[in-house]
Design goal:
By secondary structure, the protein is mainly α. The chain has 2 helices and 2 strands; from the N terminus they run ββαα. The relative contact order is 0.06. Strands 1-2 form a two-stranded antiparallel sheet.
Amino acid sequence: GFLSPSAGLKFADVPNGLAAISKVPPGGWTQILLYMGWCEVSRGPGSDIASGRPGDFGWYVLTSADPEEKKKKLSAELANGRLAM
């Protein structure tokens, strides 16, 4: 299949590893860098630095809003990490 039909670039033409970096066109790098910059300066959800909680999106799947429950879950995570070693 084609990675970019307009550029005539096939998946098979892209090498593995760091050599693939040279196959990304300058326009692609521009898009990547502009998006990275936008993510850094935008004030989207989870960017509340003033409250000291950046990255807090308001939903708790792995943690909890309750401090005791959060402590219990984090202790279990730490114990599982130690067990995995």
